[in-house]
């Protein structure tokens, strides 16, 4: 009986598969027939964009022409307008038409904005496609990782940009990675942990095997700055195809030589970092086809004030890269790297009608942005808003610092000099200088038996890294911090990925302790206090990593944090302080400061 049931089930599944295939063939038949009828004037197309200067990324030329769109895709270049029917005509005003820009690597779950709010920031910049990590969200969701990620991606097709995601290669279990690899829009395996794959961690072997079985897209921190020359072979040898972990000329040379598609990133920190890399590409005359452009991590505030891929492409041209090559690094070369250049990356028939109209090729200024042939942004203002409600993902906080005492935050020496006049302490420094100087052990003065927080004659704030849930003695790491400098008060952040730790910066242990307890009452976020009064608060109530806010609300909250800190003496440049502080959690875990 069981054999008959199994046979019946197998036949049923086979019939269902055959039926689905017939439906798919029928849909394709209707589409190819419709395109034929459109080109022969028998059926109406959706859109004709005319009066354009079209960039042909294949021949690297610009020609005057028009683009015909039907069912989200380009179906013709320079159609005979006397022979076609079209529902809508758009005057391109003689602007340059370039393919929609692509971010080759971004942690879209780590920008504090939920996917719809993130789109409000990137799409007006001309970005129509992103390749994204989701590891921070997955890690923060913990036991709910799989259903939470499914909910995060549930309505991804309603977003005004394309998102292709990677299952986590780190910060989560093999089982969770396996489950996510089966989801849409996941296309492969994301970042593996720097410091475990080089020692033969079995979980990394298993995740790598799953990534290879999925189709081979394995994105990596290659670890140029931390691995031996022998181990640098490992990631490309097992099939990793892309690397965004380059910081200087030698890193780029090795990454290119080992056959990796090398992603040049802007990210949180100093703009000088990307300029160093671009200068190296120009100096060494490396072919642009080796490179893609990406943000990695970038705040929505920086997107609004400086731009996204449009800014990075323009910076490439400013640094001496041919403007068309710079555009190709953010379009065709990225699409090819992901084997998707039959879908996007050029303005040619059959590709999605993702089109940006700009008045310059060397300084991208997205006047009009089309995604799937629909006008979604104009003059850096969003026209199509994704109506997606993420409030169902809001969580309740579970505080854990009730018994934290100010004494636990006191700065204690790692070592005292023989004469008792100096103490060795940790110095943390993350802003725009790569990982090599993330932390150091430095000597500081001791006066009247007390440690003086002074390095090279400059007074620094203290930093405390505090475990949220303690089983026994709480794990706390104290040191000095270069980056935020306030005369009074404190600032504290909580980012529960991959572990439940807080960071507090200030001068006074009691104020820092009070500040930590304020943010402990949140799922995640950032708070500024002065005299134990809250001056600014940014709650991240979607699993502790995203704000359930509109873009404008989120930007106002991050700017309020900066304003409160400025009133206390801080002078910030570049990314908002909250984004800078949250990047600390990545390196604190990577370098073993979290248990």
Automatic annotation (TrEMBL):
Catalytic activity: adenine + H2O + H(+) = hypoxanthine + NH4(+)
Class of enzymatic activity (EC top level): hydrolase
SUPFAM superfamilies per record: Composite domain of metallo-dependent hydrolases, Metallo-dependent hydrolases
Residue ranges of every copy of the Adenine deaminase C-terminal domain listed in the record: 441-574
GO molecular function: adenine deaminase activity
Domain Amidohydrolase-related as annotated: residue spans: 317-375
A Pfam family the protein falls into: Adenine_deam_C
EC number per UniProt: 3.5.4.2
Record's protein name: adenine deaminase
Species of the source: Pandoraea thiooxydans
């Amino acid at each position: 009986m069981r054999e008959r049931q199994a046979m019946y089930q197998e036949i049923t599944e086979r019939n269902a598969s055959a039926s689905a295939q017939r439906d798919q063939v029928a849909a394709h038949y209707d589409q190819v027939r419709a395109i034929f009828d459109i080109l022969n004037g028998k059926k109406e197309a959706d859109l004709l964009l005319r009066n354009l200067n079209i960039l042909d990324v294949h021949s690297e030329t610009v020609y005057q022409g028009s683009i015909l769109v039907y069912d989200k895709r380009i179906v013709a270049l320079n159609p005979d307008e006397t022979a076609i029917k079209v529902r809508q005509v758009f005057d391109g005003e003689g602007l340059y038409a370039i393919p929609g820009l692509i971010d080759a690597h971004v942690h879209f779950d780590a920008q504090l904005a939920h996917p719809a709010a993130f789109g409000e920031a990137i799409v007006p910049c001309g970005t129509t496609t992103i390749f994204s990590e989701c590891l921070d969200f997955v890690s923060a969701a913990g036991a709910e990782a799989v259903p939470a990620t499914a909910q995060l991606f549930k309505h991804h097709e309603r977003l005004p940009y394309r998102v292709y995601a990677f299952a986590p290669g780190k910060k989560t279990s093999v089982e969770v990675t396996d489950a996510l690899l089966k989801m849409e829009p996941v296309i492969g395996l994301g970042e593996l942990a720097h410091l475990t794959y080089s020692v033969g961690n079995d979980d990394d072997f298993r995740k790598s095997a799953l990534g290879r079985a999925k189709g081979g897209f394995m994105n990596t921190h290659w670890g140029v700055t931390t691995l031996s020359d022998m181990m640098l072979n490992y990631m490309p040898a097992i099939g990793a195809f892309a690397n965004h972990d380059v910081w200087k000329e030698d890193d780029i040379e090795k990454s290119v030589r080992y056959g990796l598609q090398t992603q040049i990133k802007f990210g949180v920190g100093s703009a000088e970092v990307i300029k160093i890399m671009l200068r190296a590409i120009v100096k060494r005359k490396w072919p642009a086809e080796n490179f893609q452009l990406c943000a990695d991590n970038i705040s929505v505030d920086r997107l609004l004030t400086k731009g996204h891929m449009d800014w990075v492409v323009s910076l490439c041209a400013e640094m001496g890269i041919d403007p068309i090559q710079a555009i190709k690094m953010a379009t065709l070369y990225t699409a090819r790297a992901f084997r998707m250049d039959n879908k996007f990356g050029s303005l040619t028939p059959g590709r999605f009608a993702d089109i940006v109209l700009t008045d310059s090729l060397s300084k991208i200024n997205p006047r009009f942005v089309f995604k799937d042939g629909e006008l979604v942004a104009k003059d850096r203002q969003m026209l199509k808003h994704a109506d997606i409600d993420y409030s169902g993902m809001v969580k309740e906080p579970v505080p854990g610092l009730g018994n934290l005492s100010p004494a636990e935050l006191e700065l204690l020496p790692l070592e005292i000099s023989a004469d008792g006049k100096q103490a060795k302490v940790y110095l943390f420094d993350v802003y725009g200088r790569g990982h090599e100087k993330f932390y150091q052990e430095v000597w500081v003065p001791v006066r009247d038996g007390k440690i003086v927080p002074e390095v090279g004659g400059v007074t620094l704030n203290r930093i405390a890294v505090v475990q949220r849930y303690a089983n026994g003695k709480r794990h706390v790491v104290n040191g000095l911090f270069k980056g935020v400098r306030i005369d009074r008060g404190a600032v504290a952040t909580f980012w529960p990925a991959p572990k439940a730790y807080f960071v507090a910066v200030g001068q006074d242990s009691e104020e820092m302790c009070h500040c930590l307890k304020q943010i402990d009452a949140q799922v995640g976020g950032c708070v500024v206090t002065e005299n134990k009064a809250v001056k600014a608060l940014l709650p991240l109530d979607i699993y502790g990593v995203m704000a359930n806010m509109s873009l404008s609300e989120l930007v106002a909250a991050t700017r309020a944090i900066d304003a409160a800190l400025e009133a206390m003496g801080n002078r910030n440049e570049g990314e908002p302080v909250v984004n800078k502080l949250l990047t600390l959690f990545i390196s604190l875990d990577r370098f073993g400061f979290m248990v």
